[in-house]
Design brief:
The complex is a heterodimer of chains A (360) and B (294). By secondary structure, chain A is α+β, with helices and mostly antiparallel strands. Helix content of chain A is 22%, strand content 35%. In chain B, α6 packs parallel to α12, α8 crosses α12 and α11 runs antiparallel to α14. Chain B is globular, with a radius of gyration of 24 Å. Classes of the chains: A alpha+beta (360), B mainly alpha (294). At the A-B interface, β6 of A face α9 and α10 of B.
Chain lengths: 360, 294
């Protein structure tokens, strides 16, 4: 497998004064399901459009499979795109839409028919050949868009938030299906989304973007467990941020005083400097335990529940604790608000679940 | 009693629809249906003398029309002039609309208003201005002569078919802009990007995606220009001279100077039928052609 199948070298794209993509470099492996994740306006779609050839970079260059494609127009690139709104041609039926991209490939009629048939069965749309875009549901349109791009057998498939327009149930189904499809055909997928759950559940690797820069590029579980900065920690899942101040360093560990919790020795993964208040400590809501009685965990706080919200598979507690300014969120699968008398409770935290992050 | 009326009114959608339509319906009947019926009936009468009309039904006027070479020639010329006007307008207006729809990002409305600015003056004034531009001592001829390019003025510019085509094209261009712009502006740019993404060049994308999708606007523009220009008589009367005369000028004369109302009515009916037929054929052929393109 080629580890640098797609090379993105120092790519910048400026629109007037806005740096949509700001000096970004990374590589995508062959056959990988790669996601670009970030809030709207973070530059992820611009980066995808740069790969597709709809935009040209202000500086930097792009390589796919060893070929420099920076200056190539979209029709000369080994990529195909699934558009956010699917862009199914309304004046052509499903079959013609799918055939559309094949006419320039110089294939025989038999080969064209065979490919169309194969791709239709791949996306489970046999029997829909004669339908037009306005006679299809959202999910079917999405499949047509997918088939139309895949039938050309591109080296890279680009997907621009293709699941955004579907309802939740269908979206979950399509996530699984897309993932299976990608593993079966082995084409490299570059997937753009603002939905962190979608990116985490589908991808081999995820690049989290903000303000035109890559904030972190790693496997999904790493993003969640070891976020490299506040932005990633906040964007992926939920978390509580507490004020902290570092003291002296002790090998791989560092002494930290955390508001309301006290002073601890915590593993220093991110090379955080000594004697600094430019740090923050993050604790995930589900890593904490809420209980009626005191526990023997590393930290156990007296607390008061201000509000609860019942979410079905779990309950979320909003808790006030002494010495902590902000309200802490704790989630638990075992309690609902009726279990606590006078809303009094204990919050337990294990030291290994506390992570330190640089503010900048 | 009132209560039951209300009930009937509330339940019956047809009554509601007709109530809402009635002002327009009355207008259409008075201003369209009645005159049409009158015209059709008059085309089957005979003008006996200056003031006298014979009211027995006959199709002789229609036979007369096709036996008079002049009238058939004028009909064909009317169609030819209108066809040229429509074609030139489309060719000039389409790129402008394309540009506004896809490349202008801000103030699209302002662009459209600016384009229609010349059309805020009266139609007649514009026709007369073309006289000043195209005439033997007009702007074009005098500047060409002053520049030493010509010795004698170009005569085909004025009192000719050319003059009629130029003037009508300018006069009706604004009406082509709007339907074309609307149909192009509705096209999602991602269709064009998808075409490029699927391996087509800019040129191919235009003929296989953009143009077919803008077809409703194209047909709209064709009809909006062709129908009124084929029957226009002001421009040919003022700028056409003898060569640029159209059938409508003859119809006007039948109702006026010549005073043969049945003949005028028959000519008008024939013209109307021809226009309707051409309209149907044009929109069908355009659709067929596009289907073959894609």
């Amino acid at each position: 497998m080629n580890n640098s199948f797609i090379q993105i070298n120092n790519i910048s794209k400026h629109f007037a004064d806005v740096k949509a993509v700001d000096d970004v470099s990374f590589e995508i492996k062959e056959g990988e399901f790669f996601s670009l994740l970030g809030p709207s306006g973070c530059g992820k779609t611009t980066l995808l459009r740069l790969l597709a050839g709809f935009e040209y970079p202000t500086s930097g260059n792009l390589l796919i499979d060893g070929t420099d494609i920076t200056a190539l127009p979209p029709d000369k690139r080994p990529t195909n795109m699934v558009f956010q709104n699917y862009a199914i041609f309304p004046h052509l039926n499903v079959e013609k839409n799918i055939q559309f991209g094949l006419r320039k490939l110089g294939l025989s009629n038999d080969e064209i028919d065979k490919r169309v048939k194969n791709v239709l069965s791949l996306v489970k749309l046999e029997g829909y050949e004669e339908r037009f875009s306005n006679q299809l549901s959202g999910g079917q349109r999405q499949r047509v868009a997918l088939a139309r791009a895949l039938v050309r057998q591109p080296k890279v498939l680009l997907l621009d938030e293709p699941l955004g327009a579907l309802d939740k149930k269908l979206r979950d189904e399509m996530q699984l299906e897309l993932r299976t499809l990608q593993k079966n055909i082995g084409i490299t997928f570059v997937f753009v989304t603002h939905d962190q759950q979608e990116a985490i559940s589908m991808s081999d690797r995820v690049a989290v973007m903000n303000e035109g820069k890559i904030q972190q590029l790693s496997e999904p579980n790493e993003l969640y467990k070891n976020p490299e900065n506040i932005f990633v920690s906040d964007f992926i899942g939920e978390t509580n941020f507490l004020k902290a101040e570092t003291k002296s360093r002790d090998g791989d560990f560092i002494n930290v005083s955390i508001e309301g919790l006290g002073e601890f020795k915590i593993k220093n993964n991110l090379n955080i400097v000594e004697n600094s208040s430019d740090v923050v400590c993050s604790i995930r809501p589900e890593s904490m335990m809420i209980s009626k009685v005191k526990s023997d965990w590393d930290i156990c706080l007296d607390a008061k529940i201000c509000q609860t919200s019942y979410l079905g598979e779990m309950t979320r507690f909003y808790v006030e604790a002494k010495g902590i300014e902000k309200i802490i969120t704790v989630s638990s699968q075992h309690f609902d608000n009726q279990s606590f008398e006078n809303n009094e409770c204990f919050i337990s935290i294990s030291l290994e679940d506390i992570s330190l992050l640089n503010k900048k | 009693m009132i209560k039951s009326w209300r009930k009937i009114y509330a339940k019956n959608d047809n009554i509601k629809a007709y109530t809402l339509l009635s002002p327009a319906l009355i207008l259409v009947i008075l201003a369209m249906v009645v005159p049409m019926v009158l015209m059709l009936s008059f085309s089957m009468f005979t003008q006996v003398s200056m003031m006298e009309i014979d009211y027995t039904f006959t199709f002789q006027r229609y036979i007369d029309f096709f036996q008079k070479n002049l009238l058939v020639t004028l009909l064909i010329k009317s169609i030819k002039i209108s066809f040229l006007v429509t074609l030139i307008t489309l060719i000039t207006a389409y790129p402008v609309c394309y540009y506004i729809a896809f490349y202008v990002k801000k103030n699209k409305m302002l662009w459209l208003v600016l384009l229609t600015l010349p059309f805020w003056t009266s139609y007649l004034l514009r026709v007369f201005s073309w006289k000043i531009i195209l005439g033997t001592k007009g702007v074009i001829n005098s500047s060409l002569i002053n520049a030493g390019i010509l010795n004698e003025p170009l005569t085909f510019l004025m009192y000719s078919e050319t003059a009629v085509v130029i003037t009508l094209t300018h006069a009706w261009a604004a009406f082509a802009l709007l339907p074309l712009y609307v149909s192009l502006d509705k096209i999602d740019f991602s269709f064009i990007e998808a075409g490029r993404d699927l391996g087509l060049s800019r040129f191919e994308v235009f003929w296989k995606i953009t143009f077919p999708l803008s077809l409703p606007g194209v047909i709209g523009a064709i009809l909006i220009i062709f129908i009124p220009t084929v029957g226009d008589y002001v421009t040919p009367a003022l700028l056409g001279g003898i060569e640029g005369r159209m059938l409508s000028n003859m119809i006007q004369a039948y109702f006026g100077k010549i005073n043969n109302i049945p003949m005028g009515a028959a000519s008008a009916t024939i013209m109307l039928t021809t226009v309707v037929l051409i309209t149907i054929i044009v929109s069908n052929v355009t659709k067929r052609l596009t289907q073959r393109l894609t």
